[in-house]
Amino acid sequence: MKPVVSAMNAWSCVVISLFAIVILSVLGSLFQSNHHGFTGSEGEPEDGPAVAASVFTAVVVYAGFFVFCAFQAYLHMRSNRGGAISLN
Hints:
Elements: H1 7-32, H2 48-80
């Protein structure tokens, strides 16, 4: 298989997706537990679990990006070594 995106784009996507998964997971868990800093005050959402469900949906989307981009980065590394089988 040949990679669809460049190596730089693949690795950038891997890093950004990893950070997004971590940060959004923390935010989603805080909304899930109705943390007082995120729910209940003026201008804040009252239904924390509903917001958490949306945030966790974004985590699933970023996990898909992470898997796709990591596979693309793997394909680039494999092609740099000379393919699946390398004769030295």
